[in-house]
Amino acid sequence: METGSVEDVTGLFKSLDGFAIFEIAVIFVFALAVVWLTQRILPWVASHLHGKRRLYVLALVPMIRIVVLVAALAMIIPRIIEPTLQNMVATLGAAGLAIGFALKDYVSSLIAGVVAIHEMPYRPGDWIEVDGTYGEVTHIGMRTVELVTNDDTVIWVPHLKLWDNLIHNANNGGPSLMCIAEFYTQPEADAYQIRDALEEVALTSPYLQLGKPIAVTAAEQPWGTKYRLKAYPIDPRQQFQFITDMTARGKRRLLELGVKFAKVESDEALKI
C-alpha cells in the first residue's frame, strides 16, 4: 500500500533534466525582470503626466504584475507536473490545504490583494484614509498597499485589514480632490460679506483648479458661526499647500474686514 502511494505521488511529477530546469529558470527570471521594469518605468512615466493620464498609468502597475505572475506560473507548472486533470486537481488541492493551515493570514491578504486589483477600491495616486491614517497610495503589492502620509511617513497596510475597515477615498481614481478650509467667527459677523470674501480668496489662489465649483457653507454653533470654504486644487498632491494658502489668505482677508474670530472652548465644539 505504501509503495503504491509513493508511486502515485512520484507519478505526479515529471523527471526534470538540465534543459527543463534551464527553461524554468529563464521563465522565472524573465517574469521578475518584467515586474521589476514595470515598477520602475511606469511610475517614472506617470511622474511626467498629470490628471487622469497619470492615474491610469499608475493603475497599470499592479495589473501587469499579476498578469505576468499568473502567466509565469501557467508556463512553469506544466514543466514540473504531468498536465493531466487528475494530477492537477491532486496537486492544487494538497498545496491549497497546506498553505491554508500554514499561511492563512498571508494567503488571505494575497487573495484580498487580487480582489482589490480587480475591484479597484483604491489605485496608485489615490488619497485614502484607513483606520485614521490618511495618505497617497504609492504602491499596491500582492499582500500590502503602501501609503505615504503628508509627513512623508511610509505605511504598509495589509490588504486583509482593508476588508475589515471603511476606506475613505478622496479622489477615487480621478484628478479632482475637494479641499476644505474652516473658519470660526463670532455670530454677529456679516455672513454674506464673509461668504463673498472667502469665495474671492479661493478664486485667486494659484492652486485652484478652474472649472470646478467653489462653495462656502455656514453653520451656526453655540460659540459662533462655522464657515467651510470648499474648492479643488489643480493636482491632488497640492492639497495641503492649497488648504494652507486658503487658510492664511482667508484669515488675513477676514481680519482686514474687521471680523472677530470665535473662541472654541473645547474640542467637542469642533465636532458639532
From TrEMBL:
The chain crosses the membrane at residues 20-43, 55-78, 84-103. It is found in: Cell inner membrane; Membrane. It is a multi-pass membrane protein. Keywords: Cell inner membrane, Cell membrane, Ion channel, Ion transport, Membrane, Transmembrane, Transmembrane helix, Transport. The keyword Cell membrane applies. One of its GO terms (cellular component) is plasma membrane. Residues 105-171 form the Mechanosensitive ion channel MscS domain. One of its GO terms (molecular function) is mechanosensitive monoatomic ion channel activity. Pfam families: MS_channel_2nd. Mechanosensitive channel that participates in the regulation of osmotic pressure changes within the cell, opening in response to stretch forces in the membrane lipid bilayer, without the need for other proteins. Contributes to normal resistance to hypoosmotic shock. Forms an ion channel of 1.0 nanosiemens conductance with a slight preference for anions. Belongs to the MscS (TC 1.A.23) family. This is Small-conductance mechanosensitive channel. It comes from Idiomarina ramblicola. The lineage of its organism: Bacteria, Pseudomonadati, Pseudomonadota, Gammaproteobacteria, Alteromonadales.
